Amino acid sequence: METKEILDEIGMRRSMTRIAHEIIEHNKGVNDVVFVGIKTRGEILANRLCDMIEHIEDCKVPCYALDVSHWRDDLEEAYPIPDLEMPVKGKKVVLVDDVLFKGRTVRAAMDAIMHFGRASEIQLAVLVDRGHRELPIRADYIGKNIPSSLQEVIRVKVKEIDQQDGVYISK
């Protein structure tokens, strides 16, 4: 299987920095903004964005991790609703994931967010948008668009799990 690096560590950091600035600009600051990272790599990316924004804006932004398994429509097994508090009512939620593909994970995450409270707005930030949507979902903030075929696999690696940062495509 041939693997090609699409983004290295520096490229990833630049994309994340740009996304952080776009979020601040779009929301005119970060008042009433809450980050929700989709487990597992989306959670890590959300934490990184929150750290960047804290450094830029000199204020802490709430950041939560979300397991969307209960709300998935493509899993046979029933998963329990996660036992956690996520105060999203009336907040601007920035949902963060590593790769946006068919849109089903994001749909499940939006259902989950609404379970925890009615957010005033949900925005989507992804490191990679690879296309092939099955649902009418689009990202508000994108690190890199990577047109791909259905046979290709895109992997985001993060130091916290994979001991390196990067985005790779395999055929």
TrEMBL record:
What positions does the record give for the motif labelled PRPP-binding? 93-105
Q: What's its top-level EC category?
A: transferase
- What sequence ranges are listed for the domain Phosphoribosyltransferase? 3-147
Q: Name one GO molecular function term.
A: uracil phosphoribosyltransferase activity
Q: Which reaction does it catalyse?
A: UMP + diphosphate = 5-phospho-alpha-D-ribose 1-diphosphate + uracil
Known EC number: 2.4.2.9
Q: Which InterPro entries does its entry note?
A: PRTase-like (IPR029057), PRTase_dom (IPR000836), PyrR (IPR023050), PyrR_bifunctional (IPR050137)
Q: Which UniProt keywords apply?
A: Glycosyltransferase, RNA-binding, Transcription, Transcription regulation, Transcription termination, Transferase
Family under the similarity heading: Belongs to the purine/pyrimidine phosphoribosyltransferase family. PyrR subfamily.
- Role: Also displays a weak uracil phosphoribosyltransferase activity which is not physiologically significant. Regulates transcriptional attenuation of the pyrimidine nucleotide (pyr) operon by binding in a uridine-dependent manner to specific sites on pyr mRNA. This disrupts an antiterminator hairpin in the RNA and favors formation of a downstream transcription terminator, leading to a reduced expression of downstream genes.
The record, for NCBIfam families, names: PRK05205.1-4 (NF003548), PRK05205.1-5 (NF003549)
- Subunit structure, briefly? Homodimer and homohexamer; in equilibrium.
Q: What is this protein called?
A: Bifunctional protein PyrR
| Species in which this protein is naturally found | Amedibacillus hominis
